Amino acid sequence: MASHPQTPRRKVKTPSYLDAMIPVFTLIILVGSSVALFGLDAVNGPLQVAIILSTMITAVVILKNGHTWEEVSESGRKGLATISSAVFILFSVGALIGTWNMSGTIPTMVYYGIQMISPNWFFPIAFLICVGVSLSIGSSWTTAGTLGVGLVGLANMLGLSPEITAGAVISGAYVGDKISPLSESTVLAAQLNGVPLYKHIRSQLWSTVPSGVIALIAFIVLGISQHSGFDSTITDNELTRFNELFHITPWNLLPLVFLLVLSVFKVPASLAILCSALLAGVMAAFMQPQVIVRFIAEPDVSAPLQAIKAIWLAMANGFQENSGMEQIDALLSRGGMDSMLLTIWLIIGAVTFGIMVDDFGLLNKLVTPLLLRARGIVRLFASVVGTAIGLNITAGDQYIALLLPTRLFRGEFAKRGLAPENLSRIVSDAGIVTSPLIPWNSCGAYMAAVLGVSTMAYMPFAVFNIAAPLITLALGIMNINIRRIPVATSPEHSEGDNPGGVPVQK
Length: 506
Description:
Structural class: mainly alpha
Organism: Chania multitudinisentens RB-25
Main location: membrane
InterPro entries: Na/H_Antiport_NhaC-like_C, NhaC_Na-H+_Antiporter
GO molecular function: antiporter activity
Protein name: Sodium:proton antiporter
């Protein structure tokens, strides 16, 4: 029998510098255009379209170089796999906000907060509270999605800036997350660099403490100088209205305590948040029956069935309140899993783009020249910082911004006799901490979604997140806490090492 000739495989070409630059420039142009045309509303669809189009253009470049569509599709599937946990966390937080509003948990936090916190000291107090909670549970996402929601709502009630409050929440959440031994990102940074966990944390204190002090001073100054719209008469009216709408009692804070306990015991974030959301929904049936009647507005339906429908709707579509007071209604009419769909759309596009430019060698093509030019320690540190921040912008995921610079630079650090804890600190300062400053990064999109403040609006006030990479650069310039090891005994790491791989989002 005559044999059929096999279809020859297309020759795969190494990407050129032009190939590597096309996706990045496309992303910059399309994202910039969406922001210029639509402003803060860009995150409601135009920004997502810009990133999806950038991903498609990247796919064309990859196909042009000889790769198959199946390879491109597999890369996309791998990208989606890395964010599956983040998607479940987002859905869980949406459900939690809805049921916490309905159960009186958030109204109770705001009610007591109005009575206890002086407006002049609100921002530093919000910052310190979030530092403490995030340090104890090791999760910036959980801290922002729970306490952060209540603090931003409280700021609105007091006539204070929600943008500054969001900056204080995010700054505090990342201070605690960055030095908590329970933090997933902290543990990963230590593991990837082969550094004992507490040695890595001690190294991070050199940049975290000064950056945290700068943030605290900034929030004190902002609190004193802020001309708030605080009016005790208006606030008294709101407190009275809260008491009329909800049964205010410390018992309403039980879902918050329950969530913190689960987090301390390292229950997976999405499971812990969803359990707290369900507890709040069940509590609402007993603690706030009048709220459920008002929310469902079906008097002919039995009370148990009303409660079931209320929990279901609050988790799916959020809670709605019509109190007649604009600020109260804006605070409480939020949440639901469906409120996270725009954010998930944004994260899917950004992470898929980032995985593609990494998998097919486009990122390495751009980063390698930085490594070759990094002759001194300061330039080397600056190259790591620039690469990590650049990956947060182009790849859209904090863990990619942590993992790839570690893989790219750890061999160079070892050759120069620089201890691995130097690199673990720098990639944490530049990769993890700056992630919520990028609107299309998974962290930036998450923070904007749960706090109800756009990334670009809170960005100038995320003082810690801006200061940390600058402080780590300053340490390099001033030769402070630069740990060294004998070059002859420097640990060698192969380029392909990936302890644990790219983890799921927290």
